[in-house]
Amino acid sequence: MESSGAMSTEQKQINQLPPQKMYDHYKDRTNTVAVDGKILLRFHNANKDDFQCLSFSQDELKDKFDLLGAPLVKHFNLIPLKKLKDKVLQDTDEELKKIFYGFTFVGFSKDLNYLLIRHDASLFRLKFVDIFAEGIYQLFLFSFGNFNIHRLETENDNDIPSLECLLECYFSLIDTNVENESTPSEIKQRIEILMTQKDMLSNYFGILLETKNSKHYITAIPLLLENYVPHYGALARLVYNLVRNVDYNDKLHYIHQICRILSDFYVPKAKFFFKS
Q1: Domain boundaries, the chain
Q2: Are 44 and 139 in contact (CB under 8 A)?
Q3: For the DNA mismatch repair protein Mlh1 C-terminal domain, which residue ranges apply (predicted)?
């Protein structure tokens, strides 16, 4: 049982989370609206495709049990999780929700970072990353602890990069000198900290970390949407964010931070698109 003092502290903490800009928009002469901010929509209750399939499957299974009598859907009585869900619901924009309940997808603009949808007589130009990032964040939050997993497998296990290798790759991408004396020790220390969280990452987020021959690996990621797996080129950034941008000492913050990090990982990146 958590004390009321802890609840008060957590309420202060949630108010300190990065503010969500609901939306900025303008209307031009062609009645086209550009939406560039992050939009809180509760996608998991929206259209009966893409974003809803996972939530529907959980709703269908919520009262069912496995052969040992255990519920097929896990429930977590975590006050920080409830507060984060409540914040999403409180910040939902009803006008935007109506638009997303009844829009028609038009296509991508010439710039693949934007997509076009139509609602009534208006055409909306949406920033692809912001829309998907918010929707996927909410999926991770509302499906917390109930993910199938996607195994990272190759024909040869030696082809799977270790956490150390992934971090070295990312440090190289951000122009950090991996030959610097302090870098290898920093990488090793951060991996050791991450490995202490492997049970939590597996139970809550479907991230599997394993050790083979004294090396540490990420061997599975949560399977959020059917028939969609993020580009493996984003794995290095995922691991970097997990070791550098998560406060594992604060449950409210680490749930929020990891859901955001996984959302960033899952959002399709324009640089990985094939242009015809």
Answers
A1: 4-142, 148-272
A2: yes
A3: 80-269
